[in-house]
Amino acid sequence: MPGSAADSIRDGQLLSTAVKLVRKSRGLSSRQVAAGMNIGLRTYQRFEAGSTRLNLDHIHRFGKATSSDPYAVLMAVMIGSPRFALNAADNMLATVLIVAVQNLEKSLGDRISDLDTRSLISGLAGVFDGFADQVLASDPVDEWLVRGREDLSARRPTPGR
């Protein structure tokens, strides 16, 4: 049942983990982030513990205080992956996605409903698959350097010859 107490607890746990990952990766204390968010330490501690309802204002303040992507924190909860908040903190992936959708909505307005689901899936899956291929592809420069080092090592005389 969506909106149940169990969902709220799960969301709170996901938020808590995501926020802690980002804060710790930035080397910041709870006190420093609370001050950066302009809220009391105890309020921040409840936010970081995930013991309050999702608060968009706090998530945006957290993003500003930690120089991270607030939409990635929110999306981390939505997709059930706290590490997403950390992994997208610097490249602003979630913000880029939201801005792209915002621009599409500005361009199409009510006509956004004319977009075909199959086309959306095909187009977006292709884009994301391309990103994955780019990141996962081996770098020819690295491969060239490894082969070169191996060749140099093979040609180097061994001690005692």
Secondary structure blueprint with pairings:
Layout: H1 5-25, H2 30-37, H3 41-49, H4 56-66, H5 70-79, H6 82-87, H7 93-108, H8 117-136, H9 140-155
In short:
The protein is mostly helical and 161 residues long. The chain contains 9 helices and no strands.
Provide structural commentary.
This protein is mainly alpha-helical. It folds into 2 domains: 5-94, 434 Repressor (Amino-terminal Domain) (Orthogonal Bundle); 116-161. Helix content is 73%, strand content 0%. The protein is built from 9 helices and no strands. It has helices at residues 5-25, 30-37, 41-49, 56-66, 70-79, 82-87, 93-108, 117-136, 140-155. Helix 5 packs across helix 7 (93-108). It is flat, with a radius of gyration of 23 Å. It starts with a helix and ends in a 6-residue tail after the last helix.
The amount of beta strand, in percent, is under 5%
- CA-based gyration radius: 23 Å
User: Tell me, what's the shape?
Assistant: flat
User: Helix proportion of residues, in percent?
Assistant: over 70%
Order of helices and strands: HHHHHHHHH
CATH architecture level-2 label of the largest domain: Orthogonal Bundle
Provide the structure class: mainly alpha
Detail the poorly predicted runs: none
User: What is the CATH topology classification name of the largest domain?
Assistant: 434 Repressor (Amino-terminal Domain)
Determine and state the CATH class of the largest domain: Mainly Alpha
Task: List the domain count as a whole number.
Answer: 2
- What would you give as the CATH superfamily of the largest domain? lambda repressor-like DNA-binding domains
